[in-house]
Design a protein that fits this description.
The chain has 215 residues and is α/β, with parallel strands linked by helices. The protein contains six helices and eleven strands. The strands form two sheets. Strands 3-2-1-4-5-6-7-11 form an eight-stranded mixed beta sheet, with helices on one face. Strands 8-9-10 form a three-stranded antiparallel beta sheet. Bound molecules: 5-O-phosphono-beta-D-ribofuranosylamine. Residues 11, 13-17, 46, 90-91, 111-113, 173-174, 177 line the site of 5-O-phosphono-beta-D-ribofuranosylamine.
Length: 215
Amino acid sequence: MSQPLKLAVLISGNGSNLQSIIDAIESGQLDAEIRAVISNNREAYGLQRATRHGLPTRVLDHREYEDREHFDRALQHYLQSIGPDFIVLAGFMRILGPGIVDAFENRILNIHPSLLPAYKGLNTHQRALDNGEQKHGVSIHLVTAKLDDGPVILQASYPIEAGDRAEDLQHKGHRLEHRMYPQVLRWLSNRNLEIEGGKLFYEQALLEEPLQYDA
Ligand code: GRF
């Protein structure tokens, strides 16, 4: 039998995606083990979620480090000490520097609230509304040194309806996110999805286009 997938989950806030991963593990739908929940924000509600489920937590407050490089080095050091198979960014509001991305090449995942490559960066919901888009979505991608730029694994879209505000879009996105992250991790754990040399393989075939989540 294969070993559970070892995960480190990085958060900065509410941690509802973290919760969806915990729930998938606890209900036996995902064969994984969260080795640590790491936050750069001591107040992140996700830390309480982790503690409630008996998971180890670690705060690395970026403001306590001289600069980005020192913070990254401390984070890298801690990550290496727990040895995760994958690092799961779940609302982690810091950009990881090239050192850390190199050290964990092909092993860092992020979830982003847009249909990448559209709307990289922040405030994606409001920007999509301001541009009169008819749909928006969610992407899970591999992290590279460029912001929100690595190969996309899985995407889901939803319609923007008349009267929708940014928080409505966020709510629609979250509902999808909470099913998508456990799904991608399940594929990795089952080896349906493999990552080699920055390329994605789904059921052994090179993934040329992102998979579409069928809600
Ligand atoms: C999610 O919307 C995700 O797409 C973005 O940050 C948000 C995190 O939400 N990267 P939560 O902390 O998991 O509730």
